[in-house]
Amino acid sequence: MLTLYLVAGLLVTLFFIRRLRSPITKIPGPWYTVLTSWVLKYHEFTSNRRLYIHDLHKRYGPTVRIAPNEISLASLEAIREIYASGGSGYDKTELYDLFRQFGIKTMFSTLEKQSHSQRKRELADRYAMTNILRDEHVSAIADRARAFVSRCVASAESVDVYVWLHCFALDGVTNFMFSPGGLRSLDSEEDFEIMEELTYHQSLQKNLLHYYLPALAPCFPSCLIPRHSPKTNEYVLRMSAQQQPSQHSLVAKLARKDSPLNHAQVAAECKDHMAAGIDTTGDGLCFLMWELSRPQNTRFQDRLFEELTNADPDTPIDKLPYLDAVVKEALRCAPPIPMSFPRYVPAGGRSIDGHFIPEKTIVSCQPYTVHRLDEDVFPEPDSFNPDRWMDEKGAAQRNRLFFAFSTGGRGCTGRNLAMVEMKVLLREVYSRFRTTIAEDMRECMDIDDQIISSRPQGQTCKLRFSER
Fold this sequence. Notes:
alpha+beta; CATH 1.10.630.10; three-stranded antiparallel beta sheet; globular; monooxygenase activity; metal-binding; iron; heme
């Protein structure tokens, strides 16, 4: 028995020595993060990881230890090193395996950088701004924006824009991918059911269990299995096999005769883009319209109205500076993916922000903190203020720290599509209407964390539309 105690004591001693000798120990952070990741996991399971990490950054600075093998950073140097071209070799962690579709790796869920680059080359031209701004794509988005407005003005006193914005986002991304087979959930009850299937779910904890306990996942009871989406799956599989898609649609490129992707891979890629498109655009627009509708922000809405009504109707969507400022400020305050983008440090380790970090350490930056920590760049960081983007002083630094879509070769592929969709809809709404918070709005609009994305906590945003 004494031998057993001695062996146990030796193992515990070796554990502590190994932890304390790690270079990570020298990085600022709470004492317990040297020994355990359970505190971080607790905050993940309680939907509080983002705020927990942000509070640590406010206490310890731009580099903070959050677990024995994990570092969070919030500086421009770290962003460039980890995510941009200078950070070649920082592969994604296994967290991204949660985003496989039909059990197949997509571009987003591919961990290795080289494999990701090969997949990205297959579809990059479809997401180029020159393709996004084709008349067929912009016309389809504008048609859906008009349908959104029709839905909203039909409700004289109160309309839940959260619902219809997700319909708008779903219709936009599916028309871009599957034209002429895109959805019309703003008009069709059957298509509306697909929006509900993709939008209203609670699966954070279930997905985290699969991430941390993959070996036990096959034994989980049905109540611990993440959501299914049978209607969405059937639609995507059918549309991915259509014989004559529009020449400039995404599926036309992925499913061409000489494509290296088979039907299952095409469907998986399309479903991934579809899910990402509805969440990021729908939630981003919801937070934006909520902010513009708050009483303290009416001056921003009025300034946007002035720009939109004074501009020539043929002014390109990307030539309206205040509209761009409004969108960027909304994405700064509530980025659709506000949480960490985790990566592994490459072989040999790297120095970041003056700290040597060993290989296989998990490093990440989270947009929510990058957009707030440096108050010299973003004064009053928790305040919605589009005017900050109109000031030439400090513009370069603000733009360098704008991290809503990540950056580098693995940044958000759909960024251009999302920005065009948001701007087209906002021009349609705020060139004609004033929005205010409806009297019966009671739900919470705080950011609610999911796996890496976010949404309004109450999944409801009731506004009132008044014609100007």
